[in-house]
Amino acid sequence: MSKAKNNSNPEKDAERGKIDFIGQSGLMAGISVVAVLISLGLIFTKGFVYGIDFSGGTEVQVQFSEEVDVAKVRAFTDSLGYDNAMVQSFGEENEFLIRFESASGKTEEETNKLNNETIQKVTEGLKAQMPMNADGIRRVDSVGPQIGDELKRNGLLAVFYCLIMILIYVGLRFDYKYAPGAVLCLFHDAIIVLGIFSLIEHEVNVTILAAILTIIGYSLNDTIVNFDRIRENEEVFKGKPLEVIINRSINDVLSRTILTSVTTMLAVLSLYFLAGGVITDFALALGIGVFVGTYSSIYVASPIVLLVQKYIDKSQAA
């Protein structure tokens, strides 16, 4: 009986039984470009529904002791003279979020005084006119317009500086051919998440900004794992085309990528369905981000490495 010979070949091993991610990169690039352009279109034309963190104003979270519909709560705010107040169902049963525009005074002291008068008028009116227990007013937040603008500016700067530091880190940690893919991947993820929030008109506030930064970290971690394997395989499969090495590398870590995404998504779904309150939108942003971040680490970051390498090779040959 003849013995089976070990005829393993690195070139064949690199392509055997693997999903051709790089072969699909052209189609996926088109989908990504369309998704980003649509998201940017929504952001610049439709805009965001800013929370009081960014827009300023007064927000009252209230829970009534019996069933109350939104129309009755709106009638109450109209009776107080706040025709532009926003009322929405929130959290548990018979729980609502009532938001009023920030008062505007000549000085900061006058603005604070007017906001405090609004809070007192609303809370006293709720206790007098609406069915509620002693602890029915769950939360009252007030942010001045100047502080809101400052928080918005600082939030954007935080994201910008985060991306700059990531660009430097990836360039030093690997090679500068990897850095553009990592950073563009993160822009891709953040823009799509914000575009979806603009489309569905969910509130964008400091909590969502924290979710965006968390998504950036998650997506970067996925991307770094792929980059690590690409760099390792560049040594193992010397002389092989880079597209074959990248494809092999993505397949090598695919099971890890899927397991990480699924377990993270289970935690996010638990938050979304069980936590309630402000955590719901946070979990929604994370859920979208986990899906988009997993996709982009495979179909955005890695193919861009290939494009950058081709550009470098072309420049050196010229």
Secondary structure elements and their pairing?
Layout: H1 10-15, H2 25-45, E1 49-50, H3 52-55, E2 57-63, H4 70-79, E3 86-89, E4 95-100, H5 108-129, E5 137-143, H6 145-173, H7 179-200, E6 203-204, H8 206-236, H9 242-252, H10 254-275, H11 279-317
Parallel strand pairs: 1-6
Antiparallel strand pairs: 2-4, 2-5, 3-4
Helix pairs in contact: 2-7, 6-7, 6-8, 7-8, 7-11, 8-9, 8-11, 9-11, 10-11
Order of helices and strands: HHEHEHEEHEHHEHHHH
Number of helices: 11
Mean pLDDT: 82
Examine the coordinates and then state which fold CATH places here, giving the name of the CATH topology of the largest domain.
Answer: Multidrug efflux transporter AcrB transmembrane fold
- Name the shape in a single word: elongated
The proportion of residues in beta strands is 5-15%
Compute the number of strand runs: 6
What is the gyration radius calculated from CA atoms? 26 Å
Biggest β-sheet description: 4 strands, antiparallel
Helix-residue proportion:
55-70%
Q: What structural class is derived from the secondary structure elements?
A: alpha+beta
**Spatial order of the strands forming the largest sheet:** 3-4-2-5
CATH architecture of the largest domain: Up-down Bundle
Provide key terms for this protein.
alpha+beta, Multidrug efflux transporter AcrB transmembrane fold, Alpha-Beta Plaits, two-stranded parallel sheet, 9% strand
Sum this structure up briefly:
The chain is of the alpha+beta class and 318 residues long.
